[in-house]
Amino acid sequence: MADESNEKLSREHRPEVIRERLTKPVKENLASDMVLGGIDGCVTTFAVVSGVVGAGFSPIVALVLGFANLLADGFSMAVSNYESIKTQGEFIKSLRDQEQEHIKKIPEGEKEEIRQIFKNKGFSGETLEKIVDTISADQQLWIDTMLIEEHGVQKTHRNPVKAAIATFTSFVLVGSVPLIPFMISGLEQSGQFTFSACLAALMFFSIGALKSRLFAKPVFLAGISTLLTGGVAASLAFLVGYVLREIFGIVAM
Description:
By secondary structure, this protein is mainly alpha-helical. The protein has one domain (31-248). 79% of the residues lie in helices and 0% in strands. It has helices at residues 2-12, 15-23, 31-55, 59-105, 107-119, 125-136, 139-149, 160-175, 189-214, 219-248. Keywords: Membrane, Transmembrane, Transmembrane helix. One of its GO terms (molecular function) is manganese ion transmembrane transporter activity. One of its GO terms (cellular component) is endomembrane system. It is a multi-pass membrane protein.
């Protein structure tokens, strides 16, 4: 297995393969948006379910509030993600415009910034000056270098529309799963809640496990960690519903 892995790495790092890979545009990674949307969607709906059951309301209330929160919160989260990524893109563009203006007005000062940056990396003498001359000869490369090295941001930004769609889709699909048992009229409410809890637990664990596979992390530990996060949120919602029922004397419906 190790020999196969090393052979694969060697093939992937041949000059012609590297050259081809670097000419392709960087693929956008939507995994974080989908994981975030899925976890939040499942937490949102199962927290509503837990609160409703804890308060002693009927299953239809869980369905109504669950779906209402699912769509409203999913849309809100998608819009928030869209605005966040869009703002980041606008911030990067403002930095790019700023660096372009500085290069135009004070090129020697900007060259000195490049010189100091690479001097701090250990370059000196003729090699350092060649680096400065090479970078400053290409304005696009110059600006990109300043964005990464001085401001610590990437030269590209993500597509906010794709991120928003991924977030909303994952939120709704995963978040609707805990509501399925409440559509089954033949089950008692306790059975519906137990079934819903099992489905929610499965979703939490699956999302954590999927995340671990994407980023080469231990599957079981990642699944349990996500499961505990969702479990704590649901437990708090159930506790709040139960306490408020006792305080206000809510009669089970």
